[in-house]
Fold this sequence. Notes:
Two copies of one chain form a homodimer.
Chain A: E1 6-7, H1 17-25, H2 45-62, E2 68-73, H3 76-88, E3 94-99, H4 102-112, E4 116-122, E5 145-148, E6 150-151, E7 156-157, E8 168-171, E9 188-192, E10 203-208, H5 209-213, H6 225-230, H7 240-256, H8 259-278, E11 297-300, H9 305-317, E12 320-321, E13 332-335, H10 342-359
Parallel strand pairs in A: 1-12, 3-4, 3-5, 5-8, 8-9
Antiparallel strand pairs in A: 2-10, 6-7, 9-10, 11-13
Helix pairs in contact in A: 1-7, 2-7, 3-4, 8-10
Amino acid sequence: MSRDIVNFNAGPAGLPAPALKRAHEELLDYAGTGMSIMEHSHRGKAYDAVHKETMALVRKLLGVPDTHDVLFLQGGASGMFATIPMNFLGDGQTADYVVTGTWSEKALEEAKLIGETHVAGTGGVDGNYTSIPSELDLTDGAAYVHITSNNTIAGTQFQSFPTTKAPLIADMSSDIMSRPLDVKNFGMIYAGAQKNLGPSGVVLVIAEKSLIERGSKTIPKILRYKTHADKESLYHTPPTFAVYIMRNVLAWIDELGGLEKMAARNEEKATALYGAIDASDGYYRSPVDADARSRMNIVWRLPSEELEAKFIAEATEAGLVGLKGHRSVGGLRASTYNAVSPEGVGRLVDFMAKFRAANAS
Amino acid sequence: MSRDIVNFNAGPAGLPAPALKRAHEELLDYAGTGMSIMEHSHRGKAYDAVHKETMALVRKLLGVPDTHDVLFLQGGASGMFATIPMNFLGDGQTADYVVTGTWSEKALEEAKLIGETHVAGTGGVDGNYTSIPSELDLTDGAAYVHITSNNTIAGTQFQSFPTTKAPLIADMSSDIMSRPLDVKNFGMIYAGAQKNLGPSGVVLVIAEKSLIERGSKTIPKILRYKTHADKESLYHTPPTFAVYIMRNVLAWIDELGGLEKMAARNEEKATALYGAIDASDGYYRSPVDADARSRMNIVWRLPSEELEAKFIAEATEAGLVGLKGHRSVGGLRASTYNAVSPEGVGRLVDFMAKFRAANAS
């Protein structure tokens, strides 16, 4: 086994080594049952314990209050883009969307198919998402306000969250569990697992019970949040292995000391990387407003696309993989999710210094 | 590691040992990449090869013609219960449902929320699903005809499929890949993976391209089959690890000789088990019509519920696990999916003989 690489993939992304090692050790025989956890019934004791432990860890790490339910769903964040307006955007209502990147746009497009929407703020002009709006133009009596807390492609992130009268719904797919949160301020938080929580195939949803109760009763039952809340996410077969890996990942965060510690670790990584960019005399350039810089997806440019391609090729050779920016924007991107260690980021910072020394004219 | 048990779980169910062993061997380092397959981008070379190989294996094993697309989706068969009528049951149309068990009922209930439905046949009276209808009362010009090919709870199975003018849509969650099929006779086949294909969290869909084209263009984009067909199931992040395990399972079926061989193996297992029931002088009793008996979920009763409980306890002790009938019907159930070996069924048959000798009065 050779795991000497540093995985900067944007998602599916690297998993913490201890979480993966634990999965490896018990893959063929879970807890002495003679079966893989994948082979256990979702209604049996072995999986039930994993399911409940994972929910308890979500509650503990994020301090989820009793007013909110924790759900494990399928369909990705992209599925939620549809089911959120289907559940909560009734006739005659308007939903506010803050559009700060490609994923916000997609969420908005799905909502437009369901009901009335209003763009309450954007992250830049002409699809150039370099900022986070400091003021929002909110609709009186909006059904909800939707934001994307971190923008994986643009490399921006809400540093603090707006206060809204309507339920605040946040897609936190790319920064969930990276920092402490005050969950009670949110009507709903949702996150596809494949960045900070586990493998693709499960979506974590944390939603206010009173909001869930107000969901549509005429859409198909499987698409109602209430269906899943009523059955503790066992209405139908959950993606058991994905939940199990999430358990391993959350247990690792818990052992590390929880989200305060994780936030400090992520800050350390981001400071090192932005520091390397800012200290490069403009050789490396962040296209993002300084006060909107993401701690999870750090994007930067080089003097030319040729140099960017060379950087990516040589970095890959050096074991630093996944650094190519999203195909829609180009450039470089280091996704420094929880699983990426400060040492891994240190290797990238060293590589950046050497590359610049060798290639700056 | 102790894998001396025989797993008769109804789903999530046992996986073929070679498929699981392969996953174990490469869990931490997939194909020398230094990363788990879970950690690879769904747009990278490593996963893309797995994705395409899995699709190719589906096409090869089932002989899927070019007229049909192969999709990997999320949300389980229960998700399809909603998205099928949302896509294909338009205003002024009627969809025919053949109701042969609990899962057909659930599919019908979701469709009723979308449009007009008609029950074209049932598997028994008063919710007592012991048969498969030999004749159907089909609607002229129906949007589609929906059947459940195998009924996991009732233990019944279509031995052959009806000929319909409207597209025939079959939930094959519990018998996909257990026998050869003539795919061209179906508008759509779908199957949650967790019985014969892999872990829970991925649904295999095989659908006629012309049917997909006719799907609704006004429902949310993520819920349209066309969205996924157009992007070869990479419109959003697929459940990559679940697809990967499906690849391992299908490769195992292929190595075994394909679906003719698999059908013969399943027939051998079912013959042994039904033989043990029928030769027990009524001690073991099949509640199902002889011509409707499932080859995948074999259900039977004992003279009393007390004896059934004793049977389950002693069988579990002997390493024969997962034999408890569904909580809604009671009794015994052996799910003899592809991964269950003839030797495993032989152990159950031996146990049945010994139990009867010790407990028959």
